[in-house]
Each structure stands twice: as structure tokens, then as C-alpha cells.
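Submission sheet (multi-component)
Chains listed below:
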Amino acid sequence: MIPQEVAVAPRATAAARGYGHHHRTATARLLAHLARYPGQLCPFCDRPMFAEPHLNPDGRKPHGDHGVPQALGGTQTSRLAHASCNTSAGAKLGNRLRRRRRELDALGRGRASRVW
Ligand SMILES: [Zn+2]
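Outcome: structure written.
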């Protein structure tokens, strides 16, 4: 019996996924600023953020956030957000984009299914 090959797409590098050097240094800079000026408001829930994980509602260190979502072409880490708020926002946007693609596919459009 011939073993069936399993195609596994290689995971993109951290930089390719938008979490490379720029993301890490920008997040570190934003966290240092937050440590100096605690209580800045999370852009998603409007509750204060703190550099110390235990002071945040989710008990985690804030995440560097792409102000313009990566899924919409954003590349710059421009602000902080609670880790849970940031993850949740990314998941919600991903779900909306997938739903929209399915709707377009159902209509026979989208995904370059036709050359205009
Ligand atoms: Zn939040």
C-alpha cells in the first residue's frame, strides 16, 4: 500500500504574519509607555489597561494591536489593547470576513472566480 501524502502548509514566519521585529519592538515601546502612564483606555472596551498583568480584567499583559486590522491590510502595531479584547476582535473580524466570502461564493462571485 502506498502511504498517502499529507500536505501540510508550512507556517509563515513571525515577520510574515505581522509579528516580527517591528511588532515586538513597537509593543515593548507601548508597554514601557503604559508602565509610565498607567490606566490608558483599551480601544475595544474602554476600560483601563496596565502593564502589570494582574491589574487587567483578563489578568494578562496587553497586546500590541494593529490599529488597521492585518486582515484588512494593516501592518503597523500602533496601540495596545487588552489581550482578550484584541484576540476577540480578531476572531470576530475573521468570522465576518469568512461569512462574507461564503456569501460571495454562493453568488458565484469573489475569489477571482471570473476575470472581468
Ligand atoms: Zn479591553
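Remark: The helical segments are 21-36, 83-106.
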